[in-house]
Specification:
Keywords: Membrane, Transmembrane, Transmembrane helix. The protein has 305 residues and is mainly α. It is built from nine helices and two strands; from the N terminus they run ααααααββααα. A hairpin with a 2-residue loop joins strand 1 and strand 2.
């Protein structure tokens, strides 16, 4: 008579474990679905809005000198996908446990791939193949950024702030200054006459920076300020120096890495942008670290925590 009772207990225990397992799956499925949906929305919306605003011109004729911005289009597509993944992972999993945050990263990446068919439909023959590859590389870079977000959610806040800054600069300057060129990680109001005060002092700079640097500096300087503010505020709130430094510098560093992933697109104007974004990332790291150190000194732990 003991064996049937044991079998019943085992069956009941298995049923309870199964119910608990599926309840846990259901509880964690929500953030993953949200991450995939937000990743798809961010990937599609950025490409669509950029095309509508004239920031992207994927179907343009890149002949007769317009080839100077052909590579810009490709890296910009990759940039939008790279920003979509960590931002979506942060929005979906910031308040979750670390395992759920980690699982949200591939979900966000899968969602961001939704930009691929839209890019293929918008792109002309000159860039269609390259932009398809750019979507994939951008998503992969976004996964790297998402991994940092999974480890420290404050990094996602910094990346999102950087992406918002660039979008605001791109939309405002495109509307007010003609021409304005938007690069991966940088905005250049080329129509502003900022080179005259420099005279010939910049004429010997490499990568044609004498022509580009004056109008690239305004947004670059604002980016440096943002990195310091994000790092300082984050460190003051959390007391975590490394995470605060990463929060301020992650966006510019991802931008610098992106150009290394697409070396075939780094020519003419995109080459100038690549050099400035790399310099910007190199400046953001020590400045963010310094601001985080100051913020950490101002941190006051909560005695009731």
């Amino acid at each position: 008579m003991a064996l049937p009772g044991l079998a019943t207990v085992q069956a009941n225990a298995f049923a309870v474990r199964s119910v608990l397992y599926f309840m846990n799956v259901a509880r964690n499925a929500g953030p993953l679905v949200l991450a995939a949906a937000v990743g798809a929305l961010l990937g599609l919306a950025q490409v669509a809005v950029a095309e509508a605003a004239g920031i992207l011109t994927l179907d343009a004729d890149f002949g007769a000198g317009n080839d100077r911005v052909q590579g810009v289009q490709v890296t910009l597509v990759a940039w939008y996908c790279a920003m979509a993944v960590p931002t979506a992972a942060w929005l979906a999993g910031a308040r979750r446990d670390r395992g759920t945050r980690a699982a949200a990263v591939p979900a966000a990446a899968a969602g961001a791939l939704a930009a691929h068919p839209l890019v293929a439909r918008l792109g002309g023959e000159a860039v269609r193949a390259d932009t398809g590859t750019a979507v994939l590389l951008g998503v992969l870079l976004g996964v790297a950024g998402g991994a940092a977000v999974a480890a420290a959610p404050v990094v996602g806040r910094g990346i999102a702030a950087y992406a918002v800054l660039l979008w605001v600069a791109a939309l405002v300057l495109t509307a007010l200054v003609s021409p304005t060129v938007v690069y991966a990680g940088l905005v250049q109001p080329l129509g502003l006459d900022l080179a005259r005060p420099w005279g010939s002092a910049l004429s010997n700079l490499p990568y044609n920076l004498g022509y580009h640097l004056p109008t690239m500096l305004p947004v670059a300087v604002v980016t440096l300020v943002l990195a310091c503010v994000v790092s300082g505020v984050t460190a003051r709130r959390t007391g975590a120096w490394a995470a605060a430094t990463a929060a301020g510098a992650a966006g510019p560093v991802l931008g610098a890495v992106l150009y290394r992933l697409l070396p075939d697109q780094v020519y003419l104007w995109n080459e100038s942008a690549s050099a400035v974004v790399l310099l910007l990332a190199g400046c953001c790291l020590p400045l963010a670290a310094g601001a985080a150190a100051v913020g950490r000194r101002l941190h006051r732990p909560d005695p009731d925590a």
